[in-house]
Amino acid sequence: MKSEIIASRYAQALLAFASGYQAQERVLEQIEWYEKVAAVSVAPLLANPKIPKAVKEGLIARLFAEDTNKILFYFIRLLLRKGRVAYLKEIFSLYPKQYELERGVVKGTLLLAYPIANHLVERLQSKLESKIQRRLSLKVVENTRIIGGFIFSTGTELIDASLKRVLADLGNQLKAVPVL
């Protein structure tokens, strides 16, 4: 619990600092790049207490040497100096969520039985946005098991308009009817 609080505060601080430079999106891109390319090999080195901080800072400096935006470099260096580098993975996983919250965007998943035209997805997205009263970032996933319709979900909401659920409800209603 304590680590979540610490990571959340650092993620908020990183977002606030990036906001001051209008670089939230760039920092998000850097985090995604770091997680894809460098996290596996660099994280163990940063966490190793036998490696001097100066060597770790040099490694981070070389890692971000070609990047014009040095916010993430300075942030990781701060974590090294404060002895909080162990929270880096958690901070980097929280940053995108906090960035989306700041923008007023909710991530959602739209489960469809089969592909539909983009203009229909956009219409459905606008209807869902008006229902939840927030902007949506939709991930469309196909799953033929729902037979037809759609299932929309966010972290807190679920709208099941699938044919599979309708048929299951109908089956339950028929089972409840007494047979004479």
Please summarize what this structure is.
The protein has 180 residues and is α+β, with helices and mostly antiparallel strands. The chain has seven helices and four strands; from the N terminus they run αααααβαβββα.
What is the 3D shape?
A: elongated
Structural class based on helices, strands and sheet pairing:
alpha+beta
User: What is the CATH first-level class name of the largest domain?
Assistant: Mainly Alpha
Give a quick account of the main beta sheet: strands, pairing sense, barrel closure: 4 strands, mixed
How many angstroms separate the termini?
59 Å
The fourth-level CATH homologous superfamily of the largest domain is N-terminal domain of the delta subunit of the F1F0-ATP synthase
Number of domains: 2
Mean pLDDT: 90
Instruction: Report the β-strand fraction as a percent range.
Output: 5-15%
Q: What is the overall number of helices?
A: 7
Lateral strand order in the biggest sheet: 2-1-3-4
Q: Which parts are unreliable, with pLDDT below 50 for 5 consecutive residues or more?
A: none
Tell me the CATH architecture of the largest domain. Orthogonal Bundle
> Which topology of the largest domain does CATH recognise?
Peroxidase, domain 1
Give a written overview of the molecule.
This protein has 180 residues and is α+β, with helices and mostly antiparallel strands. The chain has 2 domains: 2-101, N-terminal domain of the delta subunit of the F1F0-ATP synthase (Peroxidase, domain 1), CATH 1.10.520.20; 105-176, no CATH class. The chain contains 7 helices and 4 strands. It has helices at residues 2-20, 24-47, 53-63, 71-82, 88-103, 118-132, 163-176; strands spanning 105-112, 135-142, 149-153, 158-162. The protein has a 4-stranded mixed sheet with strand order 2-1-3-4. α2 (24-47) runs antiparallel to α3 (53-63). The protein is elongated and about 85 Å long. The model has no long low-confidence stretch (mean pLDDT 90).
